[in-house]
């Protein structure tokens, strides 16, 4: 109780500009009070989950690419005990490769359940299938890295939506690390994300080194930015100079990464002058209404890159005196664009506007296609920052259609 009272006093002294509410407030309060229960091993030996040969398929084992059009790389522990394969919240014994299709609702014994068709594939076969699909298109690959509080089913749903919404002319690959899919699992997610840094950067390096990959469009959401940003810098250092040129279009949606750390490191990392000169670009989607990032700020003490929160009260006061919104953004860096979705925020947490807000979805589609400007963007007092405003001709109930989204009533 003493610790909790001290935390309350601390937050009265450093009261944020916006009050936390709902799940975000609960996450912040319980995390700071030390009340989150960490993940346990479970009641089944992990070896039992992977004992079936389908968890480690032999080379040449058939996979129906037509039925399973999307690609997955995962460090989650698979469960191959039943006819339907699943990917669990636990860390796997190694990285695996597979194919999947968009989740679908099915009736089982009178109850509705979500089923995600999935098959694992031998690594060599997986790379050959990815090459064949890439060669059939334009040599482009879209790589999606999810964030906090995601299961494989929610990741598959979002990856499928991105592929549909953008009409991407190449294969879509989802990288799925062992997030807990639990609002109180943030600390476990953060731990697993850092544990997965080596796995992800090795995969990204391998992908960038394939001569048949002409362009990699990387989309990260939330905590996934902390995998993506350092991995790109690693690949740039580790791969020959020609091999990372295909990493050119990077999109960070609601990135849960320290804003000041990003500002300090990015010019010497993913956005070096040489990479920008070769047309590398980063687009960041931010929102001041993002409750998840407000909770993350409360946990970490400093603002997140995906939220234009003014940590410096004097900077906020100066903006107010100039008649400008009290929103603070990362400093201008060549090759960086910030799109503020605060005014078109959607959902209970405002943490997935690029998949839920019609205005943000339209902008996102153009960015994936490689377009750097849009007439709907409103210029701000900062040259690299643009706002999106509501379109009177596009009511909120039209967002799902614009975003090509299948509504999920259980989604946050």
TrEMBL record:
<dbReference type="InterPro" id="IPR029058">
    <property type="entry name" value="AB_hydrolase_fold"/>
</dbReference>
<dbReference type="InterPro" id="IPR010297">
    <property type="entry name" value="DUF900_hydrolase"/>
</dbReference>
<protein>
    <recommendedName>
        <fullName>Lipoprotein</fullName>
    </recommendedName>
</protein>
<dbReference type="Pfam" id="PF05990">
    <property type="entry name" value="DUF900"/>
</dbReference>
